[in-house]
Design goal:
Length: 169
């Protein structure tokens, strides 16, 4: 089974489990004058509970297999002209929030709204003030662009990876 198939199967099993929970909640009790919908409703409810338990067991098995696959499968993604190798799990974390945090750090490199020109000191002296940047603006712009586009690149690569990677049981 491919990774994408397992992820889709988990969603389908979750939907089936939700359907069973709804049936259980509707048919778990009735009033004495009502006619039960099933010949032995007590047995039916018990069977639904068992089916639900079995579905959750399968969901757990698939989720653990997906995690195992994500932790053991390396993927090379080209970022800024360089091939970077990380596991699927690492790429998921980069995609989820870490690339955005890297971008935020590079976005923090600004001129802080400082103004160049002739300024007066507290003693009344006039001095020429120049902004000193303790970073390279060209590198900042390049890195911001890199981290801004990283999630899209990761998504595209992982879509293909999920379709061709066998699930590790």
């Amino acid at each position: 089974m491919k990774l994408i198939e397992a992820m889709k199967k988990v969603k389908d099993l979750q939907r089936k489990a939700e359907d069973i929970r709804k049936k259980i909640s509707v048919h778990c009790a009735d009033l004495s004058f009502e006619t039960p919908l099933y010949p032995d409703q007590r047995v039916q409810v018990r069977d639904w509970l068992q089916a639900h338990r079995d579905l959750l067991k399968e969901i757990l098995h698939l989720r653990l297999s997906i995690q195992r696959t994500n932790l053991q499968t390396n993927v090379v993604i080209e970022l800024g002209g360089v091939g970077v190798t990380k596991t699927i799990a690492e790429w998921i974390h980069r995609r989820r929030d870490l690339a955005k945090l890297d971008e935020s750090a590079w976005n923090a490199l600004t001129d802080r709204n400082l103004k160049e020109g002739v300024l007066q000191t507290s003693q009344g002296e006039k001095i020429e003030a120049k902004i000193r940047r303790h970073f390279d603006p060209a590198e900042r712009d390049k890195m911001i662009d890199l981290f801004r586009s990283e999630p899209t690149t990761v998504d595209a690569t992982l879509e293909v990876t999920n379709a061709i990677t066998d699930l590790i049981e």
